[in-house]
Amino acid sequence: MTNNPDLSRRAFLAAAAGAAALSTFERPALAAGPSMKDAYKDVFLIGTALDFRSASEFNETELEIIKTQFNAMTPENSMKPQSVHPQENSWNWTQPDTLVHFCEENKITPIGHCLAWHSQTNPWFFQGATRELALERLKNHILTLVGHFRGKIAGWDVVNEAINDNGPATTENLRNSQWFQIVGPDFLTQAFKFAREADPRVALHYNDYNIESGNKHQSSLLLLKRLLSENAPVTVVGIQGHWSVSGMNAQKLEQIDQAIENYKGLGLKVAITELDLTMTGAGGGQLGAGGFGGGPRRGGGGTVTPEALQSQADAYAKLFALFLKHRDVINRVTFWGLNDRRSWRAGQNPLVFDGQNQPKPALEAIVNVAKNANQKAQR
Ligand code: XIL
Questions:
Q1: Could you identify the atom of ligand 1 that is nearest to the CA of residue 157?
Q2: Is residue 161 annotated as a catalytic residue, yes or no?
Q3: CA-CA 20 to 30 A from 93: which of 126, 148, 166, 250?
Q4: Which residue out of 113, 336, 342, 348 has the highest number of ligand 1 atoms within 8 Å of its CB and is therefore the one to mutate?
Q5: Is omega for the bond preceding 114 within 30 degrees of 0, making it cis?
Q6: Would the CB of 274 count as within 6 Å of ligand 1?
Q7: How far apart are CA 291 and CA 125, in angstroms?
Q8: pLDDT tier at 283 (50, 70, 90 boundaries)?
Q9: What share of the chain is helix, strand, coil (3-state, %, to 5)?
Q10: By CB neighbour count within 10 A (0-12 exposed, 13-18 middle, 19+ buried), where does 199 fall?
């Protein structure tokens, strides 16, 4: 019997399947811990920001974390004007295409970032430009880039960080960027219209930091109302969410709560687009004067105490409880980075996986918020 080739082949396959099952069973617990994307699957997308700068960018553990924890992905740098469109007639598609392809293969929703920004934009956009020429370059940039990914990308950060940091609550307080100087305050409306022209269905975001509180929040409301009155097709407000553990007090949570309500009142959706909670030092979000190299990351913050990790977990849990409360308008929460080594704030341990890809207490805390809410709903 055993030399019946068909049977022995079946036996071989059965043995192999058994061995595979056993080895899965015996494999140590996943480094990735409980899954955020599973816990929030009926609530909103959970995203990460990264780039595939080379074929071997991520190790196996990191790939496993990406696939088990996240169902949305923003390119951290590769779709920014400077990276994707360094000269008027040159485009770098390799990294953006790789990312979108990876997303397609792994059922991850890709998000585009970002089209018009004062930073990481090469000077050629503005050289010798009149308003008309600058608008023509903006239009070509947006039609080509958004057009390239039409139907493949779920949303675009169309305008990034157009509002100044300190200013009165009574004006839009627009940043004096080259777009603003050369085109004027309607560069935003134009950018949104070009993006809509390039993709009739994609979500279009206004994205900024610190817009959830203080005068900058008031300015953001004035700006968004004006954009809507000019028929700019903005559909989502992106609150970046570069915050700190120490700053996440009751007042701050209340401000975020109110800001989400206010944006909802304008008929807009909300996404948390660049979440991180630094453990030491300040939050903020602006590109600092010193610059942050997009190259190899620093090694991850030094030793941190269990108490500090617990405070970070508590702060994240409070935030996610708030996001959950606003699930009717929040469609995505994206972390800015993958782990504490792959973060623009690597020195401040802001994410939920540490520099060695181990889950921090914040991961379980975030997952438990969704689980507890689910149990409550079922009772
Ligand atoms: C940051 C990246 O994380 C860095 O790698 C890069 O050197 C600078 O930009 N707000 C944004 C993001 O909208 O694009 C910024 O990303 C972080 C602040």
A1: 13
A2: yes
A3: 126
A4: 336
A5: yes
A6: yes
A7: 21
A8: low
A9: 45, 15, 40
A10: buried
